[in-house]
Amino acid sequence: MSMAGNLRKVTSLGRASGLRRVARLARRRPRVDLSHPARSPLGSAVVNCVTYRDGVRTPEGGDLVDAVQRVRKRGDGFVWLGLHEPTKEEFTDIAELFDLHPLAVEDAVEAHQRPKLEPYGDTLFAVFKTVCYVEHEELTATSEVVNTGEIMAFVGEDFLVTVRHGRHGSLGPLREELESDPEQLAKGPSAVLHAIADHVVDDFLTVIDDVQSDIDQVETAVFAEDGARVDPGRIYQLKRELLELKRAVVPLGRPLEELATRPIRAVAPEIRAYFRDVSDHLLRATEQIAAFDELLNSILQAHLAQVTVAQNEDMRKITAWAAIVAVPTMVCGVYGMNFEHMPELAWRYGYPLVIGVISVVCVVLYRGFRRSGWL
User: Fold this and answer.
1) Three-state DSSP string of 352-373
2) Helix H or strand E segment including 153
3) How far apart are CA 318 and CA 286, in angstroms?
């Protein structure tokens, strides 16, 4: 769609009730940057709405519709609209304003999507899974290690709409970092898309480092002297959390490859090289996750082998003591039959002799089992 066509579309929307609803939505509640964890939500889905020109934030006020009209009238710059968990009603008029595809809008509102990249005409829709490490004093069989969220991005020629789900994956610091580099920000919405992808992948690597600390802790416990006493539920929990991390990281490989190699209308050609760098970082994260999975399998197998060895040692000890106890049991059983004619019953030294034989045999058996490592 041409710039003149976009402007006519916005002007026609201005005469319609849908445009008035969008304006009321933008003005209804204060725009507080909810991406900062320290700030409390005020019930508005709008996090921030900023216009950039030549990589610099413009001081112009007004609502979302005014910002879009100014950008399309001048023919340069772009609008970055940030949303946090919008409802379907809140997003409907925004979708009409930017002519967003209904399927992409449904995915952005409902969330729970796999990382993906879908072009819809002049608009590109991208989904990123965000992850954060959940701090815990001690890893247990029920500890939450990895928490996931989502960032959706609609990228057009003169706009960027980001939709965030979850209480992490803050874009506030990323916005400030981009604003400190006007030269990069001047490359348009695709430069912001690259920054978001780089930010998400960097978080992957940070979480992977933290998960490695948990794996090292479990590995140390398993191979300690009393490793057989380690709760295997801790290992299984780590594998489940690692699977959650894998679901966020691995599917992102193909979208990043497309962004780095495939010509896409919404992505500036000079930005593709930046996506190749992000793809390399993602490959590193994917390889580390695969290595962690193999390591956890080895740790689990080693733990099961330790448990088996410990059980075998216990069985050998039980068997050795049973053999020792069998000697006095057998002798006493013979003399407990109470037959009338038994040669040793009338012998004065019969009792001491039997006790001595029992003791000698038990000592010999005990020393033999000790030498063989059964006791």
Assistant:
1) HHHHHHHHHHHHHHHHHHHHCC
2) strand 146-155
3) 48
CB contact set of 310 (below 8 Å; sequence gap of 6+): 228
User: Residue 24 burial by CB count (10 A; 0-12/13-18/19+): exposed, middle or buried?
Assistant: exposed
Do the Cβ atoms of 78 and 10 come closer than 8 Å?
no
- Cα 363 from Cα 369, distance rounded (Å): 10
pLDDT digits (tens, 9 = 90+) for 239-256: 999 999 999 999 999 999
Tokens of 256: 């990043």
Other beta carbons within 10 Å of 344: 12
| pLDDT, averaged in runs of 10, over the chain (375 residues) | 39 41 41 38 69 88 81 88 89 90 92 91 93 88 90 93 87 90 91 94 94 90 76 88 93 93 88 92 94 92 83 82 85 76 72 83 85 80
User: In a 10 Å sphere around its CB, with 0-12 CB exposed, 13-18 middle and 19+ buried, how is residue 40 labelled?
Assistant: exposed
Q: Residue 149 is inside which H or E element, if any?
A: strand 146-155
